Amino acid sequence: MKKEIFRAAFVCSIPILCSYIFVSIAYGIMMQNAGFPWFASLFVSLTVYTGAFQFVLITFLSSGASLLTVALTAFLMNSRQTFYSLTFLKEFRAMGKRKLYMIHTMTDETYAVNYTLDLPEKEKQDTMFLVAFLSRCYWMIGSVLGGVLGQLLPVELNGIDFCMTALFVIIFIDQWEKTKKHTPALAGLAIGTLCLVLFGQQRFMLPALLGVSGLLVFMQAGGRAHESE
């Protein structure tokens, strides 16, 4: 049974593998080009593990930015994951000691994949944990490979980060096909686009999440009130 769960988790994590391995290789190469050895990429991936910010961190480490700047930027860039965790409060609470690991390894990609799991409670918890574990392994392996390749080969990876965008498009289409009610997806598209225009590319994520979450909570409360009547 455990082998079946591991196999299922691996299959679910294949989209993450296809994106993480290339983006993390690019990250490792950039770290090496900035003067850091391969084990520095591994250490950062073990402790920080937040893809987008790790690329920004390269600049901070190279320029000697203050700890306050690093901490504040990390908080703002990853505050969206606070909303993700609300979806899994029940599952995380039931996972015991594994809960802390699940919180640490929560990413956009693991959230999107684990959210689509339709399994019995215990099997779902085990699969979620394995998806998070495997995804972290993919990222760390790619980071080390990138650091080593950066020392051996003059590799150009312009545009490789687009595979992350492609991953989210695939996951969005998969969720669209699996659900009959598309209000959350349409709300996300509309509010996300509006916030992008109003706040710009660097600042739109948090306002968009707040807007979408508020709208969905309001709609859910209105639906319950209508049912009670």
Automatic annotation (TrEMBL):
The chain crosses the membrane at residues 6-29, 36-61, 129-153, 159-176, 183-199. It is a multi-pass membrane protein. Its main location: membrane. It is found in: Cell membrane. The keyword Signal does not apply. GO terms for cellular component: plasma membrane. Belongs to the AzlC family. This is AzlC family ABC transporter permease. It comes from Hominifimenecus microfluidus.
